[in-house]
Amino acid sequence: MQKVTKAIIPAAGLGTRMLPISHAVPKEMLPIVDLPAVYYLVEEAVKSGIEDILIITNRDKDAMEDFFDLSVEYGDVLAAKGKTEELERLREIANMANVYFLRQRETRGLGHAVGRAKEFVGENPFTVLYGDDIIFSQTPVTRQLMDVYEQYGKPVVGVKPVPKEDLRRYCSLKVAPVDEKSGLYFCDDMIEKPKPSEEFSNLSILGRVLLSPEVFDLIDGLKPGAGGEIQLTDAMAMLARKSGVYALDFEGRRFDLGSKLGFLMANVERGLVHPETGDAFRAYLKEMAKTL
Hints:
Layout: E1 6-10, E2 31-32, E3 35-36, H1 37-47, E4 52-57, H2 62-67, H3 72-80, H4 84-94, E5 98-103, H5 110-115, H6 118-121, E6 126-129, E7 133-136, H7 141-152, E8 156-161, E9 171-179, E10 184-192, E11 203-211, H8 215-220, H9 232-243, E12 245-249, E13 253-256, H10 260-271, H11 278-289
Parallel strand pairs: 1-4, 1-6, 4-5, 8-12
Antiparallel strand pairs: 2-3, 6-11, 7-13, 8-11, 9-10, 10-12
């Protein structure tokens, strides 16, 4: 079995739910306390054992490339001011992984974005960390999926139960439990953005998948699906119907960074544990709660 060492982070969306700020600042670069959202995705991949990461972007998202690079000029200024701790932190970020960038050019959906990574992936299994989904967990969710893959040798998707009315925005999986205690299921079909009565279950893919390279041939043959876009779920459904995939109800708290509420909630979550803000922020929230 081949080791999983590569990850794809699709980050080419326009971020229309975060307008007006996303018109000027890529939503992936909006800060969660003092780090951009995309950092947490890269960090999760690295902590899971991923070595090579490809971020799929589009025009006007050069700020992401700059963040994972080390500015010589900025380094000289920090060094001259004796800010060695800050400089070392920037160096750690620049060296945390082999981070590459590729433009999608046309915004044609998640499936099309992932399809652009075919040459990067080659014949290797790979993970996809959806750019809108930040997940805080004890064990990185990508690592959780990799553990299942190493045991069963099949693609794995990260799932969570969602309210029935929310399935219209996500997908629905047809599953049978493998190990209810660990939240592992076997999936042999799925549907993207199901209409009422089309749902299989209330389990939906939320932000993380581990796929085999055969998915690229399936993506190449896809026609536009839900929303007129090339849907990655449609290719994964073909994999599921062909030989099955595993679905893991992962451990972790997921935040939708494509929404204003999700962005605010993620900042509260991290602000409470940040060493510079945690205690004071907690005290502030307790006082604020008394006025609500």
